[in-house]
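Lab meeting minutes (informal)
Scribe: AK
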Amino acid sequence: MKASILLDSDRPKVPIQEVIDQFRKVGMQYTEQNPDLGVVVGGDGVFSYFGRLETIPLLFVGVRGEKPTGSRAHLAEVYFEELGRALRDLKEGRYEVVEYPRLEVLLNAKSIGEVFTDVYLERGADGNCLRFKVFTKGEGFHFTDFVIGNGVAVTTQAGSTGYFSYLDKIRLGDWLEPERHLAIGENELGICYIVPTYSVRDGTVEHPLRYTVPYGSEIRIQLIREADARLYGVYKDRSGIKIGLDDIVTIRASKRSTRVVKVAPHLK
């Protein structure tokens, strides 16, 4: 078995040589050419980045940090100090590969990338709230929400510990265990309005804040008033994609999936 090592190119959590040393200790072959799987070392942002790009199975390895605002690495299968044991499990066949559905993101009907965890429209430097509408349609239903707030996040099951869970964190206090409350089902997408001051579902008296729809639904987002709005989660660029009044962001099911490696202790 051959594996590649995938790190944040700008701010790696650990030096690549430390990962290579772990490979050598257990006799795992490290390669950059035609690997059987990838070992991703970092936090949830790095997992999300490689999760939307790679086609090989990925083992997510978290790094515990001393800083209280460091990455929580909710998606980590193991932590770095456990990597040796996980690599031995891989060599000895004690693992399985689980597929997670991705989302495709289009801007003005042109595909601009895929998403493993979440994609979100959020205000940039402008201090004013965004005013936008969200049209959602699926098999046998469609509706439009009008919202004033900081933005909207569209989330897969893999991204449920991000923006989608902020309400649970407020309600339950120190909510940092993703296994405790999985709010998004296997065949669902989550839609969550980010700090809204107002929302209304057209033709109803409902004021939605967070909800799920079936995977395969199509979601279209458009500003109602010009603002400094940015689309995040598709490109690595941390400045996001500038979204204007005439732009339409469409989010739909992708034909591809992300393959995640589960090692022995986490097999069901």
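Next up, CB showed the second protein from the same session:
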Amino acid sequence: MSNQLLKGKRGIIFGALDENSIAWKVAQKVHEEGGIFTLTNAPIALRMGEINKLAEATGSKVLPADATSLEELQKLFEESTQILGGKLDFILHSIGMSPNVRKSKSYGDLNYDFYLKTLDISALSFHKIMHIAEKTDSMNEWGSILALSYIAAQRTFSHYSDMAEAKAALESIARSYGARFAHLKKVRVNTISQSPTRTTAGKGIAGFDAFYDFADKLSPLGNASADDCANYCIAMFSDFTRMVTMQNLMHDGGFSHSGITDALIEKMN
């Protein structure tokens, strides 16, 4: 049931690839709650995905943009505010990619050019997005900017590799730019640390099924789904969370605070 929590609000959603992606679910939920937005992803990702179906279903415009390019981001923000008819109230950063992970490089044998690309795509792009949002004065006061993170920013997870450092940088950027944007425009900036989720990107990590099963057994509520994450994003975009900023918000069914659970003990036995 829709409560029209985002009626009259405008935004940009980065990273919707296919119906398994969290950004896709967020876009559907924003539309249901009355918000309007543009959809964007890198040109190569747009060719791989099915984003035009989402655009048609939500009445949205797809604008290709490389989130690591300041020039393309500037064009994106200028076109988005023109298409949407005003400044923005929300932004979702759902971007992450590691060439080292994709090519199964050992953590002790990383390609450092790949490593820099991981950081640029998965973390620095968040800073660049906010830099351009500020430079173009594209955000309304009390707007909300979110990025999706993972608990590997704080803990070591086998095979997550250099993405762990990227997520740690992402969360740090949210705190630092959150302080800046709060003073400038009362815009809040947060990250949501999501459970392992069966997205196209997530399933590409070696051992993902073990990640997923372990987290599910260690979470009193079980793993949070992509749909549940979308609901959380809606809450964070709404006016009900106007004083929440610079936080890394755990959305993991209790995983981050669990030592052990009966379900995990039974599994081990």
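CB comment: Residues 49 and 130 are 25 Å apart (CA to CA).
No objections, moving on.
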